[in-house]
Design brief:
The protein is built from 6 helices and 2 strands; from the N terminus they run αααββααα. It is mainly alpha-helical. A two-stranded antiparallel sheet has the order 1-2.
């Protein structure tokens, strides 16, 4: 869940996006992070589970269902939607480990 909270926080502003990109480029600063947990994200995840877009796994992680993967691919393929978000996500590593997220959250 922390990965989702981290990405949600980063997507809120250009400033937070730049902070996260700098972290993964190993240009971190002690003043950079103040990740805030957004309680509405929990409700959003519950809605996505109900819609069949994501699944809660046994270890309490969240993953895209087949329908969620199809929707994500459709969004990614459409160059007219979510342009800024896709540009930001393209600057991040393909996989963000729980260890990396824990390091950020504990910074």
């Amino acid at each position: 869940m922390e990965q989702i909270y981290l990405l949600s926080w980063a997507l809120r502003s250009k400033g937070s996006q730049e902070i996260l990109v700098r972290w993964f480029e190993r240009r971190k600063s002690p003043d950079d992070f103040a990740v805030r947990y957004d309680p509405s994200l929990t409700r959003t995840i519950a809605i996505a589970v109900s819609a069949g877009l994501v699944e809660r796994n046994e270890n309490q992680t969240i993953s895209l269902s087949d329908s969620g993967v199809a929707l994500a691919r459709s969004i990614w393929a459409n160059s007219e939607v979510m342009q800024q978000e896709k540009a930001f996500l393209s600057r991040l590593p393909n996989k963000i480990s729980q260890k990396a997220v824990r390091e950020i959250m504990d910074w």
